[in-house]
Amino acid sequence: MSAAAVTDVVDVRRQAAAARNEAVLRAFDALAPGERLDVVGADPSAGVLRCLQTRRKGLFDWSPLESGPERFRIEVSRRAAEPGALREVGEALAWDHDRLDALEANVFERLAARDQAGARGRWAEFTVGLRRHIRFEEEVLFPRFEERCGPGPTGVMRFEHRQIEAILEAIGLALANEASALALRAELHQVLGAHNQKEEMVLYPMTDRILDALERDALVAAVQAVS
């Protein structure tokens, strides 16, 4: 998955809730499938999310890029789907894996181009996204899976999450030294690549099988709401 260009930026920090929602809807409706806009807010913009979930159901993905405390920035991507389409866990979460992979690749492209500031900006977006991905799995997905199937693979997944978080921290400290960052990147790819594959081949499909269509859709909505 390649990173799509930002089509628009909607700053809703000084708008009332109703005006904020309408501004985002207008900008969203101008997007073609695969395009995205950035919503800038002074809070996590839960009202905007609820509006999209109600009025543009099934048509969007919601990905925080900055998580405050003074400014929040959300990437809203237009999906190629029918209005009202129900989501599946595997589809939604594997899409986020691909989005994060594209962000991480861009970090090291910028490092190779000697764009330290750009690399650090992208790294910040990547870490916000990956830490959130870990959080929504542990707070939303894993408990739902465990209540139906017992622990299964989730214990191993949690252990690997801690490994991934430690490597993220180390890379963030090493970005000024390209050689050190590249060595740690190889370690991240080894752990994260195998982890994502297990999720996409085992955990996500099992979750989709044990939930009905409405339950799967509700779980994806709950994942989107994790800030």
List the keywords.
single chain, 227 residues, alpha+beta, Translation Initiation Factor IF3, 2 domains, four-stranded mixed sheet
Would you kindly provide a brief summary of this structure?
This protein is an alpha+beta fold and 227 residues long.
Describe the structure.
The protein is an alpha+beta fold and 227 residues long. It is 65% helix and 12% strand. Strands 1-2-4-3 form a 4-stranded mixed beta sheet. The longest helix has 34 residues.
Count of alpha and pi helical runs: 7
Strand order of the largest sheet: 1-2-4-3
Radius of gyration: 18 Å
In angstroms, what separates the terminal alpha carbons?
23 Å
Number of strands: 4
Helix content: 55-70%
Largest sheet: 4 strands, mixed
Per DSSP, what share of the residues sits in E-state strands of 2 or more residues? 5-15%
How would you spell out the order of helices and strands?
EHEHEEHHHHH
Q: Helix/strand-derived class?
A: alpha+beta
Broad shape? globular
Mean pLDDT: 94
Count up the domains. 2
Please mark out the parts with pLDDT under 50 across 5 or more consecutive residues, or reply none.
Answer: none
